[in-house]
Design brief:
By secondary structure, this protein is α/β, with parallel strands linked by helices. It folds into two domains: about 1-75 and about 170-258, P-loop containing nucleotide triphosphate hydrolases (Rossmann fold, 3-Layer(aba) Sandwich), CATH 3.40.50.300; about 90-165, no CATH class. The chain is built from eleven helices and ten strands. It has helices spanning about 40-45, 70-75, 95-100, 110-115, 115-135, 150-165, 180-195, 210-215, 235, 240-245, 250-255; strands at about 1-10, 15-25, 30-35, 55-60, 65, 80, 170-175, 200-205, 220-225, 225-230. The strands form two sheets. A six-stranded mixed β-sheet has the order 6-7-8-3-9-10, sandwiched between helices. The protein has a four-stranded antiparallel β-sheet with strand order 2-1-4-5, covered by helices on one side. Helix 3 (about 95-100) runs parallel beside helix 6 and helix 5 crosses helix 6 (about 150-165). The longest helix has 20 residues, at about 115-135. The radius of gyration is 19 Å and the shape is globular.
């Protein structure tokens, strides 16, 4: 589904990514972990086209997407969430979800104004799809509320729901549990696990070790821009290089060893 070959990215003298390579198989959940500053979000930014890599190649379904702009990458079916939820605060919850549908639509500027019958049918289909996703993420009661009025945990689910409305093949989640309480984290974990049935391939960056180790089929570990380990969660938990990378972060080491 996704293949990275020797990805490098520097900001001035800082090597954010230093020759990172790995593959993501169709339908699997890959956990991407590492200490703060390891290059995880930069890697997401390179894959999604926000930052160009300095060198190396990104392949999606065997197509080289290394130099494609962000909107073309999205049209191929790659979508992501951000560390801080990025939503349209003044729009309703339902409208925010419908934004995710726009890549499946044909309506343009004039058809949106004059609303021919086919455009009205298309908008109704998008609305129904968004309402179904609303139900799945538990926000049906907030459909008409301004998105900016939602508490943080629900904003997380809203952003995830919007990505699902775009019908992704590959979904990249950047710290989806950040800022959530234990109950919200458990609900999120169960929801992401349920996406397997939709055959969505997922890469998740997460600091909550119980979440990422419990969800992931495989785990890749970055440290100072380099991949230092990759494999089954249990093997990674006891990898000496991984434990060394987390040296000084006692809570993380304890969670890794559980």
């Amino acid at each position: 589904m996704l293949k990275l070959e020797n990805i490098r990215k520097s900001f001035g003298g800082l090597k954010a990514l230093d020759g990172v390579s790995f593959e993501v198989n169709p339908g699997e959940i890959l956990g991407l972990i590492g200490p703060n500053g390891a290059g995880k979000t930069t890697l997401f930014n390179v894959v999604s086209g926000i930052f160009p890599s300095d060198s190396g190649s990104v392949f999606f379904q065997r197509k080289n997407i290394t130099r494609l702009p962000t909107h073309q990458i999205a049209r191929l079916g790659i979508f992501r969430t951000f560390q801080n939820p990025s939503i349209f605060e003044a729009m309703s919850v339902l409208e925010n979800l419908m934004v995710g549908n726009h890549l499946q639509g044909r309506a343009g500027f004039f058809s949106a104004i004059f609303k021919p019958p086919w455009e009205r049918k298309e908008e109704q289909r998008m609305r129904e799809q968004a309402q179904a996703v609303l139900k799945g993420i538990g926000l049906s009661d907030s459909a008409d509320a301004a998105a900016g009025s939602l508490p943080f945990g629900k904003l997380r689910m809203l952003e995830l729901g919007r990505a699902l409305c775009a019908e992704p093949h590959l979904l990249m989640l950047d710290e989806p549990a950040a800022g959530l309480n234990q109950r919200e984290t458990e609900d999120l974990t169960n929801f992401i696990a349920g996406l397997r049935a939709k055959k969505i391939t997922i890469v998740v960056i997460e600091h909550d070790m119980s979440l990422v180790m419990g969800l992931s089929d495989r785990v890749a570990v970055l440290d100072q821009g380099r991949k230092i380990a990759e494999g089954a969660p249990q093997a990674v938990q006891h990898n000496p290089a991984v434990l060394k990378a987390y040296l000084g972060e006692e809570d993380w080491i304890k969670s890794l060893r559980r």
